[in-house]
Design brief:
178 residues; 8 strands; globular; 21% strand; alpha/beta; eight-stranded mixed sheet; YbaK protein; 5 helices
Length: 178
């Protein structure tokens, strides 16, 4: 009985997510994807799944502002200069797992911009790697780390806007601003 109750509680945010997709007329094909802890492990497990894969990082600045980066899975980010790209106060560091759960309603291994649906405080700024906007399909965890949901880039932006915020698009291939 307890497992059913826990599953029900976990299903509610996911149901809200897919209801939002339906209300926005966003196609969101979802497939099983084994849980994994690293990008390399994820590459080995996904086989021939279609689309572009991302890594997602929740970072905070010295003023405790939070930034959720969604970047290409192979991109390397310089945390020493990233604050200049996103307008943060001082260097950025990783947010705690507790903040991931508090703001986005997911466990750290399921970090996703789709978690913005749970950020009712508007505490997290979405930062999207500009190179992702050229993809046919972007893949994200749908609030759980055992599936992958594919979205068109413009649908991702529509979804983020439906969560009450404007996504920050950053071209990480450009020189770092002074």
């Amino acid at each position: 009985m307890t497992e059913t109750l826990l599953e029900s509680c976990a299903a509610e945010p996911r149901a809200r997510l897919f209801d939002r997709f339906a209300n926005l007329a966003i196609a969101a094909p979802t497939v099983p994807y084994p849980a994994h802890k690293t990008v390399e492990e994820g590459k080995a497990l996904r086989g021939q799944m279609a689309g572009t894969f991302t890594k997602n990082l929740l970072l905070k600045d010295k003023k405790s502002r939070h930034f959720l980066l969604s970047i290409h899975e192979d991109r390397t980010i310089d945390l020493k200069t990233l604050h200049k790209r996103v307008g943060a106060k001082g260097q950025l560091g990783f947010a705690s797992g507790e903040k991931v759960e508090q703001y986005l309603g997911v466990i750290p291994g399921a970090l996703t911009p789709l978690g913005l649906i749970n950020d009712i405080e508007g505490a997290v700024t979405a930062v999207i790697d500009a190179s992702l906007l050229d993809a046919d399909q972007l893949n994200f965890h749908p609030l759980i780390n055992t599936e992958s949901t594919g979205l068109r880039p413009d649908d991702l932006l529509t979804f983020i806007r439906s969560c009450g915020r404007e996504p920050m698009i950053v071209d990480f291939d450009e020189p770092v601003p002074d």
